[in-house]
Design goal:
17 helices, alpha+beta, iron, about 475 residues, endoplasmic reticulum, iron ion binding, single chain, Cytochrome p450, EC 1.14.14.1, Cyt_P450_E_grp-I_CYP2B-like, five-stranded mixed sheet
C-alpha cells in the first residue's frame, strides 16, 4: 500500500511540474479546468458527447481553453472566429496532425490523413494531382457518379418496396465511385468480399466514435495490455490492408508505365521512377486505405442520415421532389448543372450536413512550431481540437440551430444563400481532399433516389428518433428501416 501511495505522489508531482513548466516555461497555455493527477480532465468530460462537454466548458473559459486528456494538454478552439483564425489564418502553424495512439498504430505515420511534415505534403500533393487526373472535379467523374446512381436506384428497386435497412446499399454506392478511381473497377452490390469490406469500414467508424476509444487513446497501457474494442479496430484494419495489398499485387503484374489505369498504377509508377522514401508499398496501402475510408464512410453516413431526416420531415422530401419534377423531370438523370436551378434541394443538402454535424470536433490538429495564438504562447507539438459543432450550430448564423430548417440556407426570395459558417469539410490546409467529390455524390445520389422513390417510414414521423447514437469521432445515426416506394 505504501508503494502505491508513493507512486501516486510521484505522478502527482510530475503532473504539477508539467503544469508549472507550461505556465512559466515553454508555453503559456490558455486557462481551463484543473486536471486530476494522471487522469487529467477525463472525469469532467462526457465522451458519449464530447462536443457538448467542450461547449459547456467554453461558457466558463471562453473560446480558447485547455483540457488535459490524461497527462497531455490539448487546446480547444470554440466558435467561428477562433476556429477560422486557427484553421485558416494560422493554417500552416496548426497544420500538424495529432498522433492519437490508435491512429498511430493503424497508419504508422503514413497516408493522407494522419501523416505529418514532408511526408504529408508530398502524399497529399500526389493524391490531389492523381485524383484530379482521374476526373475528380471534372465531367468524367460526374459520369461515373451518375452511372453509380443508376446502379443504386436499380438495387433499391430490388427491395420491392419492402422494409429494409439502407446502411449497406447506401455504403456501396460511394464506395464504388472511389473504387473506380483507386482500383479501376466497381463491385457488384452482392459481392461477398465487397460486403465484408463494407462491414469492416462500418464497424470501425462505430468503434472510432465510441466513448471507450477516446479513453484508450489517452492511456497507452490500456492499448497494449488490456482487451477491448480497439483490438477489433486493429483487426479490421489489418483485413482492409490485406485486401488492398492483394489488389496492389494484381496491379504490379499488369502494370503498364505508359498507360496508368488508376491511383494504384500511378503510385507504383512513381515508386519505380523516383527514389523517394515517402513512396513505398506500405505508404501506398495506407494512402489507399485513407482514401477508401474517407471516400466511403463519411458520404454513406451522411446519405443514411439524410434519408432519416427526410422521413422525419416528409414535407421537406415532398418539396424536393416537386423541384426535381419541375427542373429534371422523370426521363433523364440528374446532373450537376441542375443544382444551380434547384435552390431548395441545394439548401436541404446543406442543412442536412449542418444539422448532423458529422465530425463534431474535427480531426485533431497539432502545432508544427511554437506559435502565439491570441494572448497565449502554445509550444510545438501541442494538440489542438477545433469544434466544428460551435460553427455549424452557431445561433447568430443559424437561428434555432438545433432545429432542422432548410431556410437557414435560403434568402427571403427563396434563392440559395451561402454561409461562411458552413464548415462540414473543415477549412484551411487540412480541409477534406475529397470535398468536391463528396458534394457531387450527395447531390446526385439523393436527387436520383427522390426522383424514383417515395420514402415511407415504418412508424409515424413524430416517433422517429433522429438523435445520433454516438457523438465521438463521427455522429452516427440510429439504425432504422424504410420502404422505397417506386414513383
Amino acid at each position: 500500500m505504501d508503494l502505491v501511495v508513493v507512486l501516486g505522489l510521484c505522478l502527482s508531482c510530475l503532473l504539477l511540474l508539467s503544469l508549472w513548466k507550461q505556465s512559466h516555461g515553454g508555453g503559456k497555455l490558455p486557462p481551463g479546468p484543473t486536471p486530476f493527477p494522471i487522469l487529467g480532465n477525463v472525469l469532467q468530460l462526457d465522451f458519449k458527447d464530447l462536443s457538448k462537454s467542450l461547449t459547456n466548458l467554453s461558457k466558463v473559459y471562453g473560446p480558447v481553453f485547455t483540457v488535459y486528456l490524461g497527462m497531455k494538454p490539448t487546446v480547444v478552439v470554440h466558435g467561428y472566429e477562433a476556429v477560422k483564425e486557427a484553421l485558416v489564418d494560422l493554417g500552416h502553424e496548426l497544420s500538424g496532425r495529432s498522433r492519437f495512439l490508435v491512429t498511430a498504430k493503424l497508419n504508422k505515420g503514413f497516408g493522407v490523413i494522419f501523416s505529418n511534415g514532408k511526408r504529408w505534403t508530398e502524399t497529399r500533393r500526389f493524391s490531389l494531382m492523381t485524383l484530379r487526373n482521374f476526373g475528380m472535379g471534372k465531367r468524367s467523374i460526374e459520369e461515373r457518379v451518375q452511372e453509380e446512381a443508376h446502379c443504386l436506384v436499380e438495387e433499391l428497386r430490388k427491395t420491392n418496396a419492402s422494409p429494409c435497412d439502407p446502411t449497406f446499399i447506401l455504403g456501396c454506392a460511394p464506395c464504388n465511385v472511389i473504387c473506380s478511381i483507386i482500383f479501376h473497377n466497381r463491385f457488384d452490390y452482392k459481392d461477398e468480399h465487397f460486403l465484408k469490406l463494407m462491414e469492416k469500414f462500418n464497424e470501425n467508424v462505430r468503434i472510432l466514435s465510441s466513448p471507450w476509444l477516446q479513453v484508450y487513446n489517452n492511456f497507452p497501457a490500456l492499448l497494449d495490455y488490456f482487451p477491448g474494442i480497439h483490438k477489433t479496430l486493429l483487426k479490421n484494419a489489418d483485413y482492409i490492408k490485406n485486401f488492398i495489398m492483394e489488389k496492389v499485387k494484381e496491379h504490379q503484374k499488369l502494370l503498364d508505365v505508359n498507360n496508368p489505369r488508376d491511383f494504384i498504377d500511378c503510385f507504383l509508377i512513381k515508386m519505380e521512377q523516383e527514389n523517394n522514401l515517402e513512396f513505398t508499398l506500405e505508404s501506398l496501402v495506407i494512402a489507399v486505405s485513407d482514401l477508401f475510408g474517407a471516400g466511403t464512410e463519411t458520404t454513406s453516413t451522411t446519405l443514411r442520415y439524410s434519408l432519416l431526416l427526410l422521413l422525419k420531415h416528409p414535407e421537406v422530401a415532398a418539396r424536393v421532389q416537386e423541384e426535381i419534377e419541375r427542373v429534371i423531370g422523370r426521363h433523364r438523370s440528374p446532373c450537376m448543372q441542375d443544382r444551380s436551378r434547384m435552390p431548395y434541394t441545394d439548401a436541404v443538402i446543406h442543412e442536412i450536413q449542418r444539422f448532423i454535424d458529422l465530425l463534431p470536433t474535427n480531426l485533431p490538429h497539432a502545432v508544427t512550431r511554437d506559435v502565439k495564438f491570441r494572448n497565449y504562447f502554445i509550444p510545438k507539438g501541442t494538440d489542438i481540437i477545433t469544434s466544428l459543432t460551435s460553427v455549424l450550430h452557431d445561433e447568430k448564423a443559424f437561428p434555432n440551430p438545433k432545429v432542422f430548417d432548410p431556410g437557414h440556407f435560403l434568402d427571403e426570395s427563396g434563392n440559395f444563400k451561402k454561409s461562411d459558417y458552413f464548415m462540414p469539410f473543415s477549412a484551411g490546409k487540412r480541409m477534406c481532399v475529397g470535398e468536391g467529390l463528396a458534394r457531387m455524390e450527395l447531390f446526385l445520389f439523393l436527387t436520383s433516389i427522390l426522383q424514383n422513390f417515395k420514402l415511407q417510414s415504418l412508424v409515424e414521423p413524430k416517433d422517429l428518433d433522429i438523435t445520433a447514437v454516438v457523438n465521438g469521432f463521427v455522429s452516427v445515426p440510429p439504425s432504422y428501416q424504410l420502404c422505397f416506394i417506386p414513383i
